[in-house]
Specification:
The complex is a heterodimer.
Chain A: H1 7-27, H2 31-55, H3 60-90
Helix pairs in contact in A: 1-2, 2-3
Chain B: H1 2-23, H2 27-47, H3 51-75, H4 79-83, H5 91-111, H6 129-140, H7 142-163
Helix pairs in contact in B: 1-2, 2-3, 6-7
The chains are: A mainly alpha, B mainly alpha.
Chain lengths: 103, 167
Amino acid sequence: MPGNVPITHYLFLSTALFTLGVIGVLARRNIVIILMSIELILNAVNINLVAFSRHLASVSGQAFAVFIIADAAAEAAVGLGIIIAMFRNRGTIQADELDLLKW
Amino acid sequence: MLDQFFFYIFASVILLGGLLTITRRSAVHSAIFLIATLLGIAGLFLHLQAEFLAGVQVILYVGGIMVLFLFVIMLVNLDQAARQRQFNRQWWLALLAAAAVCGEALYGLYRGRGAFTFPGAVPGNMPPNTQAVGNALYQNYMLPFEVASIMLLVAMVGAVVMAKKRL
């Protein structure tokens, strides 16, 4: 066991962070904060990948974490572009006021 | 001993920052606490001997993505939103669903905790981290790396098109 911290502790930490992100995505109204919660979820995944990479002494997990960071950058850029377009057209960024498709 | 100390320090920074990120009223405060969380995760990466990823985390996340977030918060008028209700009407359902997901994951982890011992792994003595990650990225994962670069290009063009005034 590298270090003195068992890997289950990293997995519990990652589960807790993931749950925080899920609560943020499901319960908040502000879309900017929903996007931030998605970043929390992606980072929880990264913690898992890097912890397993360390404990298996294999660098593949870190390579995948690099891909996830690139993914997060792309998602943030497109998401924030959508938010700007939405604010320009509808004048609101509250998720539950965007109900054009609801009847 | 020192390992555990730093792990719990970073873990508490991460969880406290995450909790404050999803509960603050002002989006700027949320962004600041998210930055604290991301820095805590960078520290955790250092603690796991992933130095390259810790650098990428600080430069790309804190220096790039969060600055993008702050720019958008400045472009979008959030004053009115900050005075309104912060959680939607189904927040209790959201809490219930999140608790179900968390409970399921924790139960799985608890049941499978014996499976997380890796007798075959020889930890320590890895090559210098940046070199190892570079070798993995450019040899084993060459195709995914190129696909990721194309994805970034498409996302960049898409973001420019989305944010343009008239299409």
